[in-house]
Amino acid sequence: KTFLTKEKDENRFAGVVFEIKTDIPGNNFYSEKILTMFFDLSSGRQLDTSNVFKHGFEVLLSEKVREYFSSNRLFSAMTDTENFKKYTAPEAANFSSFTFSGDNLIIYFDAGTAFDAEKGCVEAVIPVKSIKSAVSTDILKALSLIDETGTSSSESAVPTSSGGSHVSIPSGTKYIAFTFDDGPHQVITNRILDLLEKTNSR
User: Fold this and answer.
1) What is the 3-state secondary structure of 127-188?
2) pLDDT digits (tens, 9 = 90+) for 134-187
């Protein structure tokens, strides 16, 4: 499979996904594996996790992958196994098979790794918006999640005291205002923003 990511109507990144099945009946051997390759088409370079994600990305990806499978009824009963914990642990090598499709990051796991072999190769689909703090600026720009200045699309709507976007509150309305110091933080800030978005806070 080939996945293309456009930037300004031009193909910017390409992800290629190979599913490799090996069946040797005489030796009673069968395996399913995934091989992914990800390219920056503007430079012709093949990219790996160190080019696509920011330092410490594995912590956030581990959390999101585990959330994905735990909330999926096909897999939730199998997320307490040692193999699941091992292959979704916050280690970069666990997330080296990946591609982007639309606004989603897809992480692939070989058959017999995170889950039993009969499940075959499995994938976790994670909205890039939920892991922006872990994704490189170039990818976020191509996905239109930040603009040329590096401003997040969600940040542009946040009220500020120095101009910008403000929320009108009718007189007499009770409300709570939060301020956050010592940020933004690479992981925590997006967790807070995602929580506020879920509760329709502005």
Assistant:
1) EHHHHHHHECHHHHHHCCCECCCCCECCHHHCCCCCCCCCCCCCCCCCCCCCCCCCCCCCCH
2) 999 999 999 988 876 666 654 433 333 444 444 555 555 666 766 666 666 666
d(CA 151, CA 6): 19
Would you state the structure tokens that stand for residue 108, as one six-digit string? 């692939």
132 φ/ψ angles, rounded to the nearest 5 degrees: -55, -35
CB 71 within 8 A of CB 114: no
This prediction's pTM: 0.72
Interval 37-44 mean pLDDT: 96
What's the distance, CA 23 to chain centroid?
32
Q: Residue 133 class from Cβ within 10 Å (0-12 exposed, 13-18 middle, 19+ buried)? A: buried
In degrees and rounded to multiples of 5, residue 53 shows phi and psi of -115, 160
For residues 70 and 64, give the distance between their C-alpha atoms in angstroms, rounded to a whole number. 10
Strand partners, 31: 22
What is d(CA 117, CA 137) in angstroms, rounded to the nearest whole number?
A: 36
Beta bridge partners of 160: none
Instruction: Report whether 105 contacts 75 (CB < 8 A).
Output: no
* Token couple for 107: 């992480």
